[in-house]
Amino acid sequence: MVMAAHRTGGLVGKVSVITGVASGIGRATALAFARAGALVVGGDQDEVGGRETARLISDATGVTIVFLPTDVTSGHEVARLIQTAVDAHGHLDALFNNVGVNLVRMVPDVTEEEWDATIDTNLKSVFLGCKFAIPHLARAGGGAIVNNASNAGIIGRPGDPVYCASKHGIIGLTRSLALGHGPQGIRVNAICPGPIETPMIKAMRANASDTAAFDRNVAGQTALKRIGTADEVADLVAFLCSDSARNITGAAIPIDGGKAAGMIPGMIVPS
Ligand SMILES: NC(=O)c1ccc[n+]([C@@H]2O[C@H](COP(=O)([O-])OP(=O)(O)OC[C@H]3O[C@@H](n4cnc5c(N)ncnc54)[C@H](O)[C@@H]3O)[C@@H](O)[C@H]2O)c1
Fold first, then answer.
1. How far apart are CA 54 and CA 12, in angstroms?
2. What is the mean pLDDT of the chain?
3. pLDDT score, position 223
4. Residue 106 neighbours by CB distance under 10 Å
5. How many whole angstroms from 20 Cα to the centroid of ligand 1?
């Protein structure tokens, strides 16, 4: 039993809800979970991208995932996403609150509407996912929640303070939920990716005047001098949702090539 759990990453048959599956880290995680035998229900507001993810997973693994168009800022829609998983499989084991959007703008230039939209998408969405998942996880005798924060959740950054605020908020919520619901067997962790090659970073690169310099700058801010991959992040989420992580909760785990470890000598501060 233990051996089998180890070989498979311990996700076989685990009913898992993942948000933001149309792209990047969410798509890679849905694929990793499907490969590991989890029963995946994915949500995203991008219906075309979400259906494309389901097709890619089916082509690659033969596994069918359920995709539901979902705006994670809507309580009604997040509740429906989680209920869909419970209706399909009878219970819930894991939730990955993954959706997030960046806002690269100094505070005096941020409108109230942009503040609300960024906080709603990045932080309220995590509150909603946890709010609707926790009663089901408790009924199942426990389970795992992973919230996608960022380096920006553990260090300040000059160029995207509203994003930083939302990601710091995720880590405070994660730690508090871990303490509050640990006695119910519910583990709640945050991951803190550094630069990861996804459409989010591609969009920033596209706005740079010198894309090679952008890459050198971004990779140069890490100790390992590299931009990570979505598959690497997916592996961490799979581990945290597996029984192998049974004693890990309330953690905010960097997966960032060492970027948040401290100042890199000669570090270039992004604009
Ligand atoms: N890529 C990085 O370098 C990096 C670094 C640190 C943290 N992160 C975090 O990882 C997470 C995923 O980022 P990514 O790089 O895969 O980005 P991405 O842009 O590739 O994917 C984000 C997904 O979220 C979906 N989405 C956005 N708003 C939504 C909403 N209101 N409702 C439902 N879906 C919505 C988008 O349609 C998209 O599919 C985010 O929380 C991000 O902050 C990314």
1. 18
2. 94
3. 96
4. 12
5. 6
Atom of ligand 1 nearest to the CA of 228: 3
Structural domains of the chain, count: 1
154 pLDDT above the threshold of 60: yes
180, 184, 218, 223 from 136: Cα distances, Å: 15, 11, 40, 40
* Tokens standing for residue 136: 């089901």
pLDDT tens-digit readout, 63-94: 999 999 999 999 999 999 999 999 999 999 99
Q: Indicate which CATH number applies to the domain containing 125.
A: 3.40.50.720
216 domain-assigned? no
Domain-embedded: residue 48: yes
The yes-or-no verdict on residue 4 having pLDDT over 70 is no
Q: Is 98 in the pocket of ligand 1 (CB under 6 A)?
A: yes
Residue 250 region, left (φ>0) first, then alpha (ψ -120 to 50), else beta? left
From the list 121, 126, 17, the residue with the least C-alpha distance to 68 is 17
Q: How confident is the model at residue 270 (pLDDT cuts 50, 70, 90)?
A: low
Residue 54 belongs to what domain range?
2-195+231-254
Q: Does 214 qualify as catalytic in the annotation?
A: no
Cβ atoms of 89 and 37 within 8 Å: the answer is no
| Per-residue model confidence (pLDDT) at position 267 | 59
The reply to whether 97 falls in a domain is: yes
262 inside domain = no
Which structure tokens are listed for 266? 């000669």
